[in-house]
Design brief:
With about 220 residues, this protein is an alpha/beta fold. Helices cover about 25% and strands about 30% of the residues. The protein has one domain (about 10-100, about 120-219): 3-Layer(aba) Sandwich (Rossmann fold), CATH 3.40.50.10300. The chain binds cytidine-5'-monophosphate. Cytidine-5'-monophosphate binds next to helix 3 and strand 9. Pathway: Cofactor biosynthesis; coenzyme A biosynthesis; CoA from (R)-pantothenate: step 2/5; Cofactor biosynthesis; coenzyme A biosynthesis; CoA from (R)-pantothenate: step 3/5.
Length: about 220
Amino acid sequence: FAPKLLAGRSLLLTAGPTREAIDPVRYISNHSSGKMGFALAKAAADMGANVTLVSGPVNLPTPTGVNRVDVESTDDMLNAVMAQVDSHDIFIGCAAVADYRVADIATDKIKKSATEMQLSLVRNPDILAGVASHTPRPFTVGFAAETQDVARYAKDKLIRKKLDMIAANDVSSPELGFNADSNALKVIWEKGEQDLPATDKLTLATQLLTLIAKRIDNA
Ligand code: C5P
């Protein structure tokens, strides 16, 4: 039985991939399954929080009691998050947001003719950094998926994006992280850090949310 450490709190989080259209039938995306974000949503609801889950396209059922908003593109995700940010006191950016989108989405299906073709891409807005620079801002938590020097890159991201906390995972191991059912996290905040060793994503979600609840109470 989970203690209601988040009773009276409201959590907004992003999960899954975003999808950037190329033309009406094609898109650019990534392999994010959404499992970690959905585990966080379920664990937070079990801990008593009011939860809004902004999700990219995934194949997962909505956890009981969670308010879900489905989006496709990064722009849609940004708009959904910004529309909700003022009514939530914690934000977790768990989505694997596409870093670039197609500069000009073709209105009709692109025909194959030339042997080579080029797509022009433009940088997407950073949703997490947008939330962190919003006033008033929620307690803002980011994820960092790294394959090397995990702690150093994560600390750098904590400072650069002005986050309250960052949860870093090493995605170089195929058993952990992306798409897997298990994960391990190194959680870093301004004045401390804690390793959460490999376990299933729901257990890990509860552990991360427990750390967040403690940090908010100390703030
Ligand atoms: O910089 P990087 O993409 O590694 O940062 C990862 C963190 O930033 C994750 O929490 C992710 O959800 C968030 N992010 C975002 N919007 C982007 C890119 C990343 O919210 N455009």
